[in-house]
Write a structure and sequence with these properties.
Three copies of one chain form a homotrimer. By secondary structure, the first copy, chain A, is α+β, with helices and mostly antiparallel strands. Chain A is built from seven helices and 16 strands. Chain A is 24% helix and 30% strand. The interface between A and C is medium-sized, with 26 and 32 residues.
Chain lengths: 299, 299, 299
């Protein structure tokens, strides 16, 4: 009778392990989808565990644009559950001294990436629980040392897949590092009496609107309401690119065609637009860490 | 002994439930793949059920083009099994009074979408079994009311994922509506003695050929055969854009280079082309509900 | 007691079969992702087996470009495990006499495709274990004969899905053919005293560098070292497009801006570049089977 119970338990465990919800493996790169590079990464991950659930943020990060890689992770990660493993490969420094790391956030998600600024917003928003360097002696596709090494495939996808499927624990990734990632410096949103400062993380490219990182709450500390005229200054690398006045408007139609306005966008951040035209094109505004915004209320 | 049988049955059910074929969740949007918007939707769905099988029709529907969203669903849905849940988000009216609905077709598939015309062809081709309004008090990602609402993510992906994985039944989507979707009006393919009428649902963009919704059977009611000369009129919003004569040809080579022809395309519909040139470009023809075609046999 | 054991075994098999690692089904086409064509293929495969694991190499092979289809398979397949089933549909000859085949490589992978040159590199690199013609009387989506046939969907995706999920064995694909695929002829990399010959399989499009199929080992038979000046001739269809001299350089910076160099690329093959400019654009070089490269060491 006892033998039966043992068997029962074994079967139960077997069944249960098969049904165990697995961590998702979510990829992001600047490789594009015109060739097989992403498919090579997924093939390696499938080789680690054919039951892995794989997804993509985007593979169309502009080439070498670490800032956008960081920003897309920030926008996407909060909608994935704890234990999700993100593999982000935008790696202009491949072959140089940058660290290959796995970050565990305070929310329990993992980010496998070169530590080159990609983790800037994730570390800020989700917090650094622990940072580990990938030990490539262990966590590297067997045979990949013999030929050309494609780190995205041989190290990042391979390590991410092993972590997501429980082949290795987080501890087995490699040695623990100081819990501090390489961060891109940029103008944080902040209020000082009389003005708010911020950055342009990304453009609303389809319409040419300017999105800032200044949220509605901070902006409202200026004591503004709909109709208030504000003065806006936009700099790039400390050079003034734009200065002008515009109303805080509820909707585009509140100003005449061709006139500028400040509005709150769909992410609840301050944005600038021109009614029926492109603010970005007309004033040659782009996005990234070097862009700085200052808004003052006109008395 | 009886205890054992109970245990057996329990284990069997457990095993079987894990192997239960699950409904696919198939996404379509006009978001593009350059940012993380689609990945946010999939993250929410994965949070509902990590074993969900997710696929995509396309995310490159031209921005706000409900007509093309409707057309791509028509072309794709018949190749997916019953119980498949489609989530289509092309939503120029987000924030306005359009209904968020789930349509169950007579073929047993589900379509989760704003009811803004996206269901035009699905309702026509597959039939409306039942239409329900999404009750956002229940079927909305927890916490998403507090901040900016992205309906594709917080309502449509969430509801689709719950429906596909059996967390909610179709009845639990929300209240039943009149079984009538918002339909885009367009010229249906029809024969009247002496002429056939129809619409241009989409262009064969790569070659500039004009595809109509007039199938071979309807066209042949004109009493045509290969070589018959027909007169073709194409209108947009009632304005005549093109009139001309061309033969009903078996192949492009049946006419000289630069000459027009009428042929039957790969979907078995009437199409217009110019041998080795672009009919669409030369005659400025586009596609959509406002385009009307009339073909007459020349006596 | 015996009854119990029988039951145990049955349950065990059931559980195990659910957990059985399944072959991946990996798609490649020139259909693009703007419409539902790829989704139709996946819908058919899902109908065969909802538990199939589906992936993509790329769907952006340039239209009808069999050479690039062949090349992307070559680059990707080695990173997928044995038993993986690839479905590649770049099929300019649809409707003509080309065979629909499944190739089993000596490495145990399967390739489902029109036999039109797509298998050129796979056959060379991985070896032909067995080649079978798809018997469309058996291996074709039911009902698809009645209307327009889309081979990628009705034959290739359907057969690939049945093979990957074990619905049919490789033998049941159809009759065995001579183990010889249609191959695109091109200049193989080879050394003869005084010169090496090769082909341009693909460009490094982003930078305009020229990639050859001549690997470092073959090139070094010329007795070159960094700094050695070589003479390079590039022909297309036997017409000389470029002749010039350049050094074998370690890095781009070893030559002045605007000067040409020969270097070893990330795949460990000989490549040509111009420092801070596009070799391909300036000298009008493209890629494909008709391109031939000859390199000589200057005494």
């Amino acid at each position: 009778m006892k033998k039966f119970f043992v068997l029962f338990i074994a079967i139960l465990l077997l069944c249960t392990s098969q049904g165990r919800p697995q961590a998702a493996l979510v990829f992001q790169t600047d490789f594009g989808l015109k060739d097989g590079a992403v498919a090579c990464m997924k093939g390696v991950a499938f080789g680690v565990n054919p039951n892995l659930k794989m997804f993509d943020v985007t593979h169309e990060i502009p080439a070498y644009n670490i800032w956008e890689a960081a920003y897309q992770l920030k926008q996407t990660a909060p909608y994935w559950p704890p234990a999700t493993v993100f593999v982000s490969v935008v790696d202009p420094g491949v072959g140089t001294e940058r660290n290959s790391v796995v970050l565990k956030t305070k929310t329990g998600q993992y980010f496998v990436t070169p530590d080159n600024g990609t983790l800037t917003f994730i570390a800020e928003d989700l917090g650094v629980d622990e940072l580990r360097q990938i030990d490539e002696k262990v966590n590297r596709l067997a045979g990949s040392e013999k030929s050309y090494t494609f780190h995205g495939r041989d190290v990042y996808a391979y390590t991410g897949a092993r972590l997501a499927s429980g082949v290795i624990s987080f501890q087995q990734v490699g040695p623990r590092l100081e819990p501090k990632v390489v961060s891109i410096s940029y103008e944080k949103a902040r209020f000082e009496p009389g003005a708010v400062w911020g950055n342009i993380p990304i453009l609303d490219a389809q319409y040419g609107n300017i999105w800032t990182n200044i949220d509605e709450m901070i902006f409202k500390k200026l004591g503004v309401e709909y109709g208030t005229i504000v003065s806006v200054q936009i700099k790039n690398e400390k050079r003034v690119i734009y200065t002008g006045k515009m109303p805080f408007a509820r909707a585009f139609g509140d100003v005449s065609v061709g006139q500028p306005l400040l509005y709150i966008n769909s992410l609840l951040n301050v944005s600038f637009a021109i009614n029926q035209d492109s603010f970005a094109k007309i004033h040659q505004i782009s996005s990234g860490p070097s862009w700085q915004v200052k808004i003052e209320k006109i008395k």
